[in-house]
Amino acid sequence: MGSYQYDRNRRKSNKKKSYLLQKTLISLVLVTAILFNAVYVVYNSFISRINFVDPPSNSDISFTDFDVSYTDLEDDSDNIPDDVIVSTEDVTMYLLVGSDSRIGTDAQSRSDSLIIAAVDRKHKKIKLISLMRDMLVKIPGKGYNRINAAYSFDSGRKDMTLSYTRKTIKANFGIDVEKLVVIDFTGFKKIIDMMGGVEMTLNAAEAKYMCSHKVYGKFPRFSKGAGKYTLSGAEALNYARMRKVGNSDFERTERQRKMISAMINKMKDQSYIKMASMIHEALGYVITNVSQGEILGLAFDAPNLLNYDIVQYRIPVDGTFNFKSVIIGGTKCSILWANYKWNATHLKSFIYDDDMTYANSKKKAKATIPYLPNSVEEANKTTTTTQASGSDTQNTEAQAQSLDNAA
Known about the structure:
The chain is an alpha/beta fold. 43% of the residues lie in helices and 19% in strands. Strand 12 and strand 13 (331-338) form a beta hairpin.
């Protein structure tokens, strides 16, 4: 009798355990399904907002990679970088482009800012490198022009992969930046407003400019002078674009790097949910070729990346360039002519080896500046290039030069 009762109780106990196990498994399946669905919804929500780059219709355009002779530039071969660096497991590089209109529209646009952002996971730093837009460089397939003309050629072809811009950076600085992020002025203002503004410290001259600029709006509240201000989107655009304050384009690019740093610091203070919401909103205002998986990975890793130190760099480095006036397209233009090989070598050391010698413009270098003739046509006249098409290419070049002259 006792044995029978024992067996009966054991069967009941096993049934109860089996029932509990089934309930547990069903609960786990339901929770997993809910979590998977939530992740899927979040993923689609993020990805659906992104304007991904489509290949240009004339993507078979060929470029001449400086395999021709430039008889008027005696030291030209010594001014070409020896090798090319790319993103690695430790360092990922992104080309950040600020444009006065969105590529893909009917309007030809120019780049107002060109910044390489290097995310250095080895040294836990975000490195912001400005490329001065008035540098005279060789644009593959086009000859000599200011570097922001490359972007004009891209926009004229509605090439959202920025073929000319990326190849120009690669040819002159030995940096192959495959990942790009483009934002226009409207998107920039909306992102700043969405963040609730960014805090910047303005000096007296900058505050005076904010009160009086005729194009991007006058902001009377800055009449109180130097100090800390929380800038709205429209104010931030005016601040980042001001050129006739301080040391011209040199301080303008510095203000742009400071603005990006301030935006990153603003993100640091947000909760993860708020941070994810801000990233989600910002994605709707950019064009990029960064993959969906990488974007999601960056979003989830944002709390870690935002704690990296931010350091700044500018190309060309002080002491490695001259101010020149040259004739481009029949018009006299002010440009920067640099020792690009020197700059390329030290830029690579900064990005990969964490060499801080010339970071934050804290040290002036000494470099020999190659010879440059006064006329860019003179430098270009012996160049043999492969053009995309006849009259269309000529029109694009003329429009690009017109945009540069208006800058």
